[in-house]
Specification:
Shape: globular
Helix content: 40-55%
Structural class: alpha+beta
Number of domains: 1
Distance between the termini: 79 Å
Number of strands: 13
Order of helices and strands: EHHEEHEHHHEHHHHHHHHHEEEEHHEEEE
Bound molecules: protoporphyrin IX containing FE
CATH class: Mainly Alpha
CATH superfamily: Cytochrome P450
Length: about 400
């Protein structure tokens, strides 16, 4: 008897619509229930919503390629051609090697004390005010200051950089209005980085100088210099900003949890990691299949666009018990909030260092964090986070 081919799971959900971005979790759950791979009719694109398949796709760059594939739109993929994020080995490895030493544990160990001091100073200054905006005054300030400094950018770069970095992520989504509005800013981002980080403008010991030297030595093509710098500028800011903002929000909404962290400060790192799982700042990136694939019975053709949904994978009830609950006593280190495989976040050590410094300083200095108004959600095609989080803190009187 011939079996009749069944049609693959498909969904009309628009993961990039405002309503879904505000609360994507019901849509993710539905997609996970529909199957291991679901065709999204809104964008002629597949999505992998379950943890197991997202992680194995991340570990299989031969069949899930990043080359001209990380963005949904092909014109954006053209702009990113040959960048570290949008290339496969061996090209990818050459690009990634350029700053590997600067982000290695030994280099980070040298930065630790300075970053802790900087975080403590900033936290002291906002805590003194009693009520402040934990996103605008804290989360947005710190990573930008740290990364701008490491790259070799001037101190006043923040106001220019934030909207440009936001655009850098928006253009990675499908060409909806948000991505279209971001396109001109994305062009500006490239021009800004090319000028501000030109070889004559940067400190000789900074990251940008190291990238220029790699270009001069011929380790990478001259045309790849600015693309590589843009990748680090974009990747190093919004992700960490939102990771810190999201964790402070969890503290503000759960006073008991904050007290638990105060009592056992080692929990700061766990709370941050659990937040990366629960509210992943980078919700997903695209790939393209290089051959026909069978994903647990669902057939994907070669050259199919596939969204690897980190946000959904990190809430997969097949992987995590009580997946929708914040539980800092689990050890969620195998979450995919930092990705996995050859493209696993190049800055994860730095991100952890920064977050632990800021959150640690907050936990040391204040005895409570409470909401002081409604948080404002920021809508971005890739990034999940807040644009404003008013809080009131009580200074620790020890
Ligand atoms: C909590 C903060 C952060 C999160 C959640 C995060 C998340 C991610 C994710 C999910 C990827 C994988 C992309 C993919 O698979 O296509 C990635 C890659 C990357 N991240 Fe991060 N990131 C963070 C902080 C940083 C920082 C601080 C830097 C650098 C200063 C950085 C630099 C990069 C770079 C360069 C890549 C591309 C790596 C490659 O393609 O080989 N990230 N990040």
């Amino acid at each position: 008897m011939r079996s009749t081919p069944t049609s693959p799971p498909s969904s009309a959900v628009d993961l990039f619509a405002d309503d879904t971005l505000i609360d994507p979790y019901p849509a993710y759950r539905e997609l996970r229930e529909q199957g291991p791979a679901v065709f999204m009719t809104a964008y002629d694109t597949w999505v992998l919503p379950r943890y197991e398949h997202v992680r194995s796709a991340l570990g299989d760059h031969r069949r899930f390629s990043s080359e001209r594939a990380v963005a949904h739109d092909d014109s954006v993929n053209d702009l990113m051609e040959d960048s570290v994020l949008a290339s496969d080995p061996p090209q990818h490895d050459r690009l990634r090697a350029v700053l590997a030493e600067k982000l290695a544990p030994r280099a980070l160990a040298d930065l630790r004390a300075g970053i802790a001091e900087q975080a403590d100073r900033l936290v002291a200054s906002v805590v003194e005010r009693g009520t402040f905006d934990a996103v605008r005054d804290l989360a947005e300030v710190f990573p930008v200051t740290v990364v701008a400094d490491l790259l070799g950018l001037p101190e006043d770069a923040r106001d220019t950089l934030l909207p440009l970095a936001d655009a850098g992520f928006n253009v990675l989504g499908p060409m909806n209005q948000r991505a279209r509005d971001a396109l001109p800013l994305n062009g500006e981002l490239f021009r800004y980085v090319a000028t501000a980080l030109a070889s004559g403008n940067v400190r000789p010991d900074g990251w940008a100088a190291a990238v220029h030297r790699a270009g001069e030595r011929g380790d990478i093509e001259p045309a790849q210099v600015v693309r590589l710098l843009v990748a680090y500028v974009v990747a190093g800011m919004d992700t960490t900003i939102n990771a810190i903002g999201n964790t402070v929000e969890v503290f503000a909404r759960n006073p008991g949890l904050f007290q638990e962290v105060r009592a056992e400060r080692a929990l700061v790192a766990r709370a941050f990691e659990e937040c990366l799982r629960l509210e992943s700042p980078a919700q997903g990136f695209f790939r393209v299949t290089t051959e026909d694939l069978d994903i647990d019975g669902v057939r994907l053709p070669a050259r199919a666009k596939v969204l690897l949904s980190f946000g959904s994978a990190n809430r997969d009830e097949r992987k995590w018990e009580r997946a929708d609950e914040f539980d800092m006593h689990r050890t969620p280190l195998d979450h995919v909030g930092f990705g996995y495989g050859v493209h696993v976040c190049a800055g994860l050590g730095l991100a952890r260092l920064e977050a632990r410094a800021v959150l640690g300083a907050l936990v040391r200095r204040v005895s409570s964090v409470e909401p002081a108004g409604e948080p404002v959600r920021r809508l971005n095609n890739v990034i999940r986070g807040l644009s404003s989080l008013p809080v009131t803190v009580r200074e620790h009187s020890a």
